[in-house]
Batch of 3 targets.
Target 1
Amino acid sequence: MSGLPGIVVVKLGGEILLNAGALDGLAADIATLALEGIGIIVAHGGGPQADALAEKLGYGVRKVGGRRITDAGALEVAKMVYRGSTNVELVAAIGKHGARAVGLSGVDAGLIRASRRPPVAYRDGVTGGETLVDFGAVGDITAVNTDLLTLLLERGYVPVLASLCADEQGSIYNVNADTVAQAVAVALGAGRLIMLTNVAGILRDYRDPTTRIPRCNLAEVRALIADGTIAGGMLPKVQNCIEAISAGIPAVQIVDGTARPSLLRDAAEGKSVGTILTRDT
């Protein structure tokens, strides 16, 4: 187990859950690490699945700057998909390989508190125009209660968190899964945060996976944002990585979760897969 940190937080994108082979390989890695005594927490999204169900139900899908606008219909879809089908499928996939996974959301036991995001100014990168955007029932995390997570980890369970949270009045919010993973990692003092997605990492040219940047520090990643190399849907993901590192997480890794078997273990050990982000070089 040399090189493995005590707690690893893994974020799975919904696109990975659509890939049966990739999901099975990652579930096997998660189970193996958990059975070796590594504390594994999984946070997941379900964007593609939510979009597909919304389409079937006749709801439109609206996003601004890579972030989903959650009106009343979209929130109902999120509850059905995130805490329903995707969470159950992921728990079952991990359980198949012998680990004891437990399906949760931020709502359970007041695990993650959130407040409704106020309207925010958004600048269009193409036109330069600025508009005020109301994201609807989208939450910003205000607190993480680690008691339940710590209890489960100490007993050898694998918490699997759907990205729904609530405030103290019981209002439910859709929270970006990257943000959930980052907040949980910081609250638990995780040794590593791994963002699994469907791209090879941070690319100098988003159309060319061979332009992957293996490693960069905070100053370098901020420069990549400033010059437009990091943009679109990758931008909010990287911003969560920056927040995690700034809050004390030693390393954050963005990895293509569909690439090959045992990739998650390599990432957990700090091997050079995807892009590794650290505070310093």
Target 2
Amino acid sequence: MSTADDLRRLALERPESFEDIHRGRPTFRVNKRIFAMLGVAGNRSLFPGLGEDGVAVVKLERDDQLNMAARYEGTVTPTESYGHHGWTYIRLGHLDLDSLATVIQLAWANVAPKRLSRSG
């Protein structure tokens, strides 16, 4: 099963990605755009009902979001408020490493400049 450290490593392996902080949470960006965000233990406001640990949010294209949610029901879920914009919860502890790598690649490609996403 995956961890926050796995997400961090996979996200930072993507071309030109970097870690930053947004609203007190670790985020992963490319070209200044967020493609993944980790939850912070003890702060449930961003992730209501999902528990404290092992939760992240990624930004997926709508088709990718719906396909991943169908394949990993209960583990990959569109957010309630911004799901239609691609924001998607993932429960890290319920997702194997290969599946997490796929989700991170899709999220990165969704926001990366086309010059990078063609090569990444």
Target 3
Amino acid sequence: MIGFLDVSKSYAAGGQTRCIINKFSQLFDPYDRVGILAAPGSGKSILLGMLCGLETPSSGSIVRQGLVWPIGHCGPLHPGMTGEANVRSVAAFLGLDADEIAIYCQLFSELGDDFHMPLRFYSGSMRARLGFALSMALPVTTFVSDEMVSTGDAGFRSKCDAALQQRLTHAGLILFTRNPQTAQRLCSRHGLLQDGRIEMCATAQGAATRFAGQTSEFSAIVDLMAGLETI
């Protein structure tokens, strides 16, 4: 299983404590494909970080089964090391065949000789390509993502989409997104993040309808605040 057991998470900001999630429990099968619609500022990045171990809960437990990996994640990559050395290091840490991982990443990323250049010289696009290639190379049990499901130009995005679809025949996905179409295309279960809780819905359309209402209310509040500032 993967998910939250009686999890709370809060942090200090601007001299105040903000509660992102409070005593929340939700478990998924590691091979579920779950699309969670979430508005900006709703805490989706923090929830995702807890699922893959980049954030720790204030209380409660995170349940993980197998290898949980954020799509396109470049966090463990060192800027002073080459692309090749970085992916070999990740492979060695996970006990995988470093040659196999390196060959896959070089071919998939289409970086050519730049694969042997230190990451500090990479553009943002080059880092994104390498990060996505590494995600697809690893034997992931459950992918997690905050919006990202592809990268690069149209041709490379199509390549990313095809690779991810193929991987999802044997892996799960927990996707936090603002795009109902993306969630419907990639996921078979649907919900939304609201008031620090993941509310599951019976259908993709049901989740999209509730999310539309949630975001329209958010937009109305923003418009109201903007009007007050001009008075």
